[in-house]
Amino acid sequence: MKQPIVYYISQGPTAEQHLAHLIKMANAGCSWVQLRLKNTPKKQHLQIALRAQEYCKDQQVNLIINDNVEIAKVVDAAGVHLGKDDQDPLIARKVLGKDKIIGGTANTWEDCKILLEKKVDYIGLGPFRFTATKKNLSPILGINSYHTIIQKMQHHPNRVPIVAIGGITLADISALQKAGVWGIALSAYLHQQSNIPQAIKDIKDTFKSSQLYEY
Taking the model in full, what pTM does it have? Predict the structure, then answer.
């Protein structure tokens, strides 16, 4: 499974705007996009997810559904991302099958160990720094914590790629990659850019020029 360098997480005041932003970021160069709808009625959530998957499948973009395993299954999304209080990844695997992507959220090495035992495909580790995008933010990690956690992961038989998340900017990319991060999850940062395709290209180019961490 090819890991994302730039992984967009949708935002917007309405479900329709989440969809519009997701399509914009896919067009701009994000090969992985996450539909992150919260407190949306099930019928509307499903309709938006179906439209998102129709577009993403045509463009060969991986659509990840946040939290909702059932909707990920119905729309045949590439996978699901599960928060710390969401469904058990082992149950999600039984529902979605072995070929789908299952990611999990972690803030500590203990969180990571739990997810590794449950054989997720990647871990979203963060927050790197403060971000207003997510409510009930976990403790801030900073670069040293990423380095420490990923070093510990080297010795685990189920180690998986780490995607960093939380207030990340272009200036952070090289240090994060050298710490062992494989990809960057972004939301607000991309919305702040006047030229989104160029911003995504700059991030990818910075990754290419930095030393890759080998699993």
Answer: 0.92
CA–chain centroid gap for 29, Å, is 15
The answer to whether 76 and 53 have CB atoms below 8 angstroms apart is yes
d(CA 57, CA 32): 11
User: Is the distance from CB of 188 to CB of 25 less than 8 angstroms?
Assistant: no
Distance CA 83, CA 171 (A): 27
**E strands present in the chain:** 6-9, 32-35, 62-66, 79-82, 101-106, 122-125, 162-165, 183-186
DSSP, res 3: P
**Which domains does the chain show, CATH number per domain?**
6-101+164-209 (3.20.20.70)
- Could you list the mean pLDDT of each consecutive 10-residue stretch along the chain, which spans 215 residues? 84 97 97 96 97 96 97 98 93 97 96 96 92 68 94 91 94 92 94 97 85 43
Q: Is residue 196 a contact partner of residue 25, using CB atoms and an 8 Å limit?
A: yes
